[in-house]
Amino acid sequence: MEPWHVESPARLESVLSALRSPAFAALAWREAPEASREALSRVHERGYVEALLAAVPAHGYVRIDPDTAMGAATGPAMLRAAGACVAAVDAVAAGEVANAFCAVRPPGHHAERARALGFCFFNNVAIGALQARAVHGLTRVAVIDFDVHHGNGTQHSFERDPGLFYASTHQDPFYPGTGHANEQGVAGNIVNVPLRGASDGAAVRRAYTDTILPRLDAFAPEFVLISAGFDAHRDDPLSGLMLTEDDYAWITRELCAVARRHAGGRVVSALEGGYDLTALASSASAHVQELMAAA
């Protein structure tokens, strides 16, 4: 993005710096490979993939929408962001690691089948979910999204496929204007719990306890992916919600418990939003600590 943009390299630097502290010495670090065209095309139209990669400028910036631009390094970055989710799914499915957190940018959950928007180019978690199904033979794959913004792109990819499940808590009304409670997909495989501005952690926990967790248990996922956006934090400049690090830890703990019941503990999480650098680092740390505890 342009130098002034909130979706900046400093976001990832803050997360990686926090995860290099002694508390995370047990983490196994892997470099993200680039996603293949085959993996990308399970979610995105082939023509879109090729046109997007061809549009990456050699110098300067190309604007995709009012919020989203590409620079010279965007092509490799978005291929590796998607590739991280593919490689993480492969590693977890093979039993090489218990679970995984993909520290990536750009984020992905707004990217639709043939449309980039909201800082997103390829839908990283959706690409990971389809990898779990196409390569590892799983029939029920779930994505849970706690970003402050609704993941319209993930819902768009999942809503007609009963073998895929998507659930989201998000601020409403808010960008991108989707994610209403009556958007339920096929056979109820889409679960949206919109939250009014200023909703706190107690409201989010109720949404999970009363709605999302029972529906996720009923779906009985064989693999769980998380769109881990930390911009619902009370300190985030783009958020009107009031979550804290303890709330992210609680959500992660509950999702890992569902994964233990149905999916052999298999969880892959990918970074989405989060724009206050201090809150982002501390929230991601709380999230990864719970993933480590569940391993």
SSE map:
Elements lengths: L8 H11 L17 H5 L4 H9 L7 E4 L2 E3 L3 H20 L5 E4 L21 H13 L4 E5 L6 H7 L5 E8 L18 E6 L5 H19 L3 E6 L16 H18 L4 E5 L5 H18 L1
Parallel strand pairs: 3-8, 4-5, 4-7, 5-6, 7-8
Antiparallel strand pairs: 1-2
Helix pairs in contact: 1-9, 4-5, 7-8, 8-9
Structure description:
- Helix 8 links the parallel strand 7 and strand 8.
- Strands 3-8-7-4-5-6 form a 6-stranded parallel β-sheet, sandwiched between helices. A two-stranded antiparallel ribbon has the order 1-2.
- It is built from 9 helices and 8 strands.
- It is of the alpha/beta class.
- It starts with 8 loop residues before the first helix and ends with a helix.
- The chain has a single domain, classed as Arginase, Chain A, CATH 3.40.800.20.
Provide the low-confidence segments as ranges. none
What does the oligomeric state look like here? Answer: single chain
Q: Provide the domain count.
A: 1
The CATH superfamily is identified as Histone deacetylase domain
Return the CATH architecture.
3-Layer(aba) Sandwich
Instruction: Indicate the overall shape.
Output: globular
Number of discrete helical segments: 9
Based on DSSP secondary structure assignment, what is the total number of beta strands?
8
Span from first to last CA? 35 Å
Strand content: 5-15%
- Give the helix level as a range of percent: 40-55%
Cα gyration radius (Å): 17 Å
CATH topology title: Arginase, Chain A
Mean pLDDT over the residues: 97
Q: What is the H-and-E element order? A: HHHEEHEHEHEEHEHEH
